[in-house]
Amino acid sequence: MRAYILRRLLQSMLVVFVVTTIMFFMFRVMPADPTTMFLEGGMTEEARQVLLEEWGLNGTLWEQYVRYMGNLLTGDFGNSFFYRKPAWDVLWPFIINTLWIAVPGLLLGAVIGSGLGMIVGWAPRGGKVERSGILLATIIRGAPSFVVGIMLLAIFSSWLNWVPGYGMGDPQGATGLMRYLNWDFAHHLILPLCAVIIFFIPENLLLMRSGVVEARTEDYIELVRAKGVSEGRVAWHAGRNSMLPLITWLFPALAETIAGIVVVEIVFSWPGVGRELVLAVVRQDYPVAQAAFFLMSIMIVLANLAADLTYSKLDPRVVYK
Amino acid sequence: MKFAIKTVAAGAIGTTSLLCATMAMSQEKLGEIVPELSLSYYAADMGPVYEQSARVLSQEWAKLGLKFQMRPIQFSTFVSDIIVGGKLEDMAVFSVGADPDRIDPTFYLNNISACGQRANGSSWCDDEYTKMAEKQLTLVDSDERLKTVHAMQERFQSQIPWWPVTNTVYGILYNSDKWENVTNPSPVAAHENLVDPWLAARPLTDDRILDWAYLEDVSTYNPMSEEGATGWMRFVYDTFAKIGADGESRPWAAESWEFTDDTTVRVKLREDMTFHDGEAVNADDAVFTINKIVEIQPPTMSSRIGNIAGATKIDDYTFEFNLKKPDATFETIALTYLFILPEHLWADYEGDMANRDVIADGVAIGSGPFMFKEWRVNELHDLRTHTSHFAAPAYDGIRRLALGQADAIRATMMDGTADIATTVLPVAAMSDLGAQEDFLDFIEIPSHGTMMTWLNNKKAPFTDLEFRRALKTATARQRAAVEGWLGFAVPAGEGNVPRQTGKWYNSDLEPVAFDVDAARKILEDAGYGWDDDGRLHYPVN
Amino acid sequence: MSQSEMYRAPRGLRFLAPMLSTFRLLLRDRFAFWGLTIFALFILVAMIAPWIAPYDPFAPMMTESGRLIRLAPPSAEHWLGTTAFGNDVFSQLVMGSRVALRVGLVAAIAVGFISTLVGVISGYFGGIIDDILMRMTDVALSIPTLPFAIVAVGLLGPSIDNIILVITLLFWRNGARIIRSVVLTERERVFVKWARAAGASHLHIILRHILPNILRVVFLWVTMSVAFAVLTEASLSFLGLGDPSITSWGQMLNTAFASGALRTAWWWVAPPSLMLITLISSLYLIGRAYEEQTNPRLRERT
């Protein structure tokens, strides 16, 4: 077991290293020299050299690469071309903003989705509940998140005028931690959060349903039922055993959400890390784009690792090579 | 997969060229086929009008037997690759904004037209023209300068290296239930460097903060490293002069100025100014700032301060600029751009001044009409009125909301969160809103901002003057204005200087009327021909 | 993978038998039937799109007095109204089906091909080859999907071929894993061992014994890949990274969004949204039925 964990750790580190390397060269191949951004009016050659050095863009590509990886080890992502300050300082507030919609979105989506999945899974096979449940889940699953976002905007913000459809809070709002702990923030949070929840419900629903349907055929369910417990508790037993694949699915899902939430953030003007990544690409602010990318990749690698380890811990049938 | 696509593509190209070759042989008088031309334009991050305009223009050009490959390019890449990077492949359709200092024709005449200029992306280099360009900069005598400027446009018009297509009509949408006296800054886009429309606005309700629905963030409050939001910085840091809509500089922090000789400008400061921390502004601060800037040459400023040798104090409120050589654009370009930093907050700073994080150090302090209050990155900027300023507005502060997209700007205008919008929401949409909603008013700003067609003058077929002439004759300026800009642009004039700059525009230039048949005739007379598919071929040489 | 129990070794020329039987199973599922029908309809529309679309998708609609017909609600001349640029929405919608299906089908076939290749080689040969290929897959799996697509299309330029390329680069990874795991099971089957003992070549074993039995999974993965590809293309186009020379549904929504017309011009926003949902859901319905019908524990006992 310990050897297995160690091996997976080493593998993960290797993966992170390779992804970072690919990203580095990918961004350097981009047809741009960031100093040209500031050169419309004409900049002297010395001034340009100063800027290049400030951004670590001097020297050969190989030298830049070694320097970049070295800095990365010390947690230094370089300076943003656009904001002229460390990329990490730029990014962390956005990461917090993204977590506000990603984490509750995923959790609520999982709870609601798997709850509904249990109902649909326990419903009579071929009945109305099952059929409409599956059909609805599949249709929602087929809706791109920006389409869901646009529809939410159109209905709840534009037509019914219940909630605002942009940004994170009224500009007159509070600052610091207080800005997250007030009604106004919650008011702005509702729509983007709903978009994320809706994104997760169908996947959870279908997974849970398959699990429950499979569990229904297991012998022990018959045993539980034979003991005379209520049908609801039987369903609960069946559902509980279907949790395992769901839990292991959650980690990677969260990582993908944080990366895939870009579109939702753009639709709702939510100042999150995905929107900042798009802006950074447009502005050719590579240190920020690279740092965002790096963090997302790390998250995915760690999530996969966590999923594997949890799975191996929970499911005794997994064999380690 | 990659290989599969490549192979198929290569196969297709091979077949086509083979086909063309056979065709060309069958019609002896045809030369090589004019290849597909790439047409670059601003991608959707600059709004949808460029794609539409490029499409409309290329539809007409296609009637000359040309084929185009549409290439949308993000704004910053466009600037770095095509405008200053010299990587224009064939053609480009894009625009330059109606910045206040571009009412002076130097930007159009020199920066994007003369040999060796960084932003001369169409790579046209004409010695005779460039000599005039250098000369006009030094002609402090306005009449003589005007003559040269007009002569340059004549030379330009005879060579047609690139041409303007439309002049942009900007718009301001504002909440007229809450604000009045939002004035029209025509022919300049609503720019913070102007007094209009910002400082003159008056609140009608208790909401005394002007909320500006905007697209993008500001990158820093250090005016020495700021590039994209020069105007916003000038709300916090006063400039010596402000430019008027007529293109003339008028007094601001400087009460008056005069050229004492060709290379010396004596400036008299106002005596009633204070910094936001209460300290008085005097000549020491101005001289300190100018000399520091000359010393460290901040990269983002280098193009506008290159001709300044330094400054000397005369008395508490008077100092002199020393220039390296005579400069006709000093008043309009440098005086309206340079700012005053408080010496007492900067003199002891040890690090690199151009990179100082002024927010972290608490020194985002100038003498301008607004004081820095808060910046939430990519969300909003909050400035409060500096009430003792000589031009303090009649309201309490201004906020800039970085909303990122058109729909959010529309929503904030509709629900009253924002009071004024100037960009990103297409002007046509602003106009619609102004017409639909009682509480929203729309102001139309005809401007000197220009959408232009650039050509790679170093590459065939654009090296041929007759080809360029034909292309310009087939440029549907009217269609681009109506269909591309939805009526919020006007067909541009001739030459390279916009008509909207007033006296600088040479109105004697012969107009080139849009006429596809005439354009085909020009090509035919120059020896070009068409194959059975209607594709244009070079003359046989 | 327990569903493989259902198939016996293929005999002679009945190479495609498993696929046909799966197809028959599919038609028995009501949802899958609808999914297939809808998908077929989309293909039909895409094929005859130029004949259905009343106007050129980018042609400006003008009144007789030469004014642009902007943001006109649906009418007899313009069934779904016009855009802010005076283009006919219905024509754009119909032509948009071509882009969606072209990207979807080409990318999915490419994805299917690459994932099968990697999955089969990795699963069948095992050892160091498997290790190398699977570490490559791990790397690919840790690349965030949409951010990568944004950066890569931004780098390569927004043409339809580049979008297909990027989608292929992204989605082979999951398929390769799934197919590898199926191949691992197949490899251990008695008849494969017999064939190997009898001295059959690797190629022969793969082509005759492994491939036919995994085709079903490959087909499932290709179906899902069509959905992913359509979704990714739409997202990229919505972000303004679509191919500008052709009209697509994501691009229509992007233009509506950038024009600030989202809240007023429902006739411009709703149709492409509905098309995307319908197309992608129809594919998911097919995919779901596959899983359902081939997993005996999920199948309805009738």
Protein described:
The complex is a heterotrimer of chains A (321), B (541) and C (302). Chain A has 321 residues and is an all-alpha fold. Chain A contains 13 helices and no strands. The longest helix of chain A has 36 residues, at 87-122. In chain B, helix 5 (127-138) packs antiparallel against helix 6 (142-159). By secondary structure, chain C is mostly helical. Chain C has a single domain (20-301), classed as Orthogonal Bundle (MetI-like fold). Chain C has helices at 17-28, 30-52, 89-125, 127-141, 145-156, 160-187, 190-197, 202-238, 249-258, 266-294. Chains in contact: A-B, A-C, B-C. Chains A and C meet through helix 1, helix 5, helix 6, helix 7 and helix 10 of A and helix 4, helix 5, helix 8 and helix 10 of C.
Please name the defining characteristics of this protein.
heterotrimer, A: 321 residues, mainly alpha, MetI-like fold, 13 helices, 0% strand, C: 302 residues
- Cα Rg of chain B: 26 Å
**Helix and strand succession of chain A?**
HHHHHHHHHHHHH
The structure class of chain B reads alpha+beta
Question: Which range best describes the helical content of chain B: under 10%, 10-25%, 25-40%, 40-55%, 55-70% or over 70%?
Answer: 25-40%
SSE diagram, text form:
The complex is a heterotrimer of chains A (321), B (541) and C (302).
Chain A: H1 2-29, H2 45-54, H3 61-73, H4 87-122, H5 128-141, H6 145-159, H7 183-216, H8 219-226, H9 231-241, H10 243-260, H11 262-267, H12 273-283, H13 286-314
Helix pairs in contact in A: 1-3, 1-13, 4-5, 4-7, 4-10, 4-13, 5-7, 6-7, 7-9, 7-10, 10-13, 12-13
Chain B: H1 2-26, E1 37-42, H2 49-61, E2 68-73, H3 75-83, E3 91-96, H4 106-111, H5 127-138, H6 142-159, E4 162-175, E5 179-180, E6 202-203, E7 209-214, H7 230-236, E8 241-243, E9 249-251, E10 254-261, E11 264-269, H8 283-296, H9 302-305, E12 308-315, E13 318-323, H10 330-334, H11 343-346, E14 370-376, E15 380-385, E16 397-402, H12 406-415, E17 420-421, H13 427-436, E18 440-455, H14 465-473, H15 477-484, E19 489-491, H16 516-525, E20 529-530, E21 536-537
Parallel strand pairs in B: 1-2, 1-3, 7-16, 7-17
Antiparallel strand pairs in B: 3-18, 4-17, 4-18, 4-19, 5-6, 8-9, 10-11, 11-13, 12-13, 14-15, 15-16, 20-21
Chain C: H1 17-28, H2 30-52, H3 89-125, H4 127-141, H5 145-156, H6 160-187, H7 190-197, H8 202-238, H9 249-258, H10 266-294
Helix pairs in contact in C: 1-8, 2-3, 2-10, 3-4, 3-6, 3-8, 3-10, 4-6, 5-6, 6-8, 7-8, 8-9, 8-10, 9-10
